[in-house]
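Quarterly update, task 2.4: iron/sulfur cluster-bound model.
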Amino acid sequence: MKYTTFYFSGTGNTRWAVSELAKFIQQKGHQAELVSIDKGAQLKDEQIRTIVTDSDAIGFANPIYGGDIPPIMRAFLNRVMDLIGPLPSQKNTYVINTYGYANAFGPQETQKLLAGSGLTLTAYVNIQLCNNVTSNKPLDRAKLAKRMERGCHELNHLADCLIAGRKRIKGHGPQLLIGAMIRKKVPEAIAKFYQTLGVDGATCTRCMVCIKNCPTGSIRQQGDQFIFSSGCTACMRCYNFCPTGAITIDGVVANPDKFPRYQGPNS
Ligand SMILES: Cc1cc2nc3c(=O)[nH]c(=O)nc-3n(C[C@H](O)[C@H](O)[C@H](O)COP(=O)(O)O)c2cc1C
Ligand code: SF4
Ligand code: SF4
């Protein structure tokens, strides 16, 4: 059997989760493919159609933003729906969400977007790892290690359920209230996030890492200026991965010694 997971990961948590799932599936003697939806991956329409047709089950994995799906994954799911049309028969579909403190509406929203396509949600897990938003708190490595251990257990179990064709929709109920509260406010902040981003000319080395790695192609250089545009999905990748900490938010140059950057669970 072949399991293909389309994923978006701003800073590495979701990539870690899907890689672990792929390892478990392969250890159990099946095929697992991971497909990034970053703009840089340049997925072609035909390629997406073929992946959906050729896979026995399809997964969608992403971080939770404001109790919801990040705009980049929402746009991708809409694209998939437009491309595949109603499938001739039902195909098992799984969703993996990673989050820092409150999960919430990820699976319901995905289910709504998939409605009528034949991609039927049979499994959902959320994996709590850590926040990737700017913070002056050092990363609690011990806590993260425990969460990764729990996450591994959950992903191993998910692999078993997928292979056995068993349903597993788990872990989004109790947090719906918190999700409902943040969900009202965050989408607008995400949509406008690009307006808060900038580059500190004094610390930037013009290495272009931010431009090359932006998953939505929302950063460009114009003369001496860096321009951030509205396709930004607020993933924090540019901020966290700039080698000199030169990306500013609201004009603030956050000193990396005081505001440690987050570069994924294995960094
Ligand atoms: C814009 C934004 C909004 C977020 N909103 C939430 C949230 O509502 N609940 C939560 O638990 N974590 C939230 N987070 C944290 C991420 O979901 C979490 O760190 C995730 O595991 C990051 O995955 P990634 O490393 O694959 O990008 C948010 C992160 C960002 C960048
Ligand atoms: S990654 Fe940082 S140092 Fe490199 S070009 Fe972007 S802002 Fe400048
Ligand atoms: S501009 Fe920065 S925060 Fe926005 S999508 Fe690109 S890398 Fe992510």
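Highlight for this quarter: The chain is about 40% helix and 20% strand.
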